[in-house]
Design brief:
single chain; alpha+beta; 4-stranded mixed beta sheet; 4 strands
Length: 139
Amino acid sequence: RERNNLDSVEFAQQDVLKFLEQAINLGRSWDLVIVDPPKLAPNRQALHRALFMYKKINRLALKVVRTGGLLFTCSCSAAVTSTHGLLLKTINEVAVEIDCEVSVVKEVGPASDHGVNPAHLESNYLTGLLLSVHHREKY
């Protein structure tokens, strides 16, 4: 970490929900939080449960982003990505619930080395949202 000037970067390996809940209870916050869960919706039938989990994780993540900070949240589930705007809609619903405003800084998809086959649109399964976060009041 020191060699790369990463003294202010914190790495943790534990259950994300427990980590974020502990951080909230301790009053911790960061300028940048990255949420990159594994595939939560392997198919359309799992979409409802996946959206519940995206909400749960991102609700906690938004609470630990400092006002003016950034949340980078991702989905690698084709069932989510195939409905354009679904991830953003899901995050916005959570933001409204906790009286927080988010603005899209950038939306990204697969990198150029991860091509999308037009004959197999499910190959377009990566979505990333870089969001600016502003809390209206403490939750």
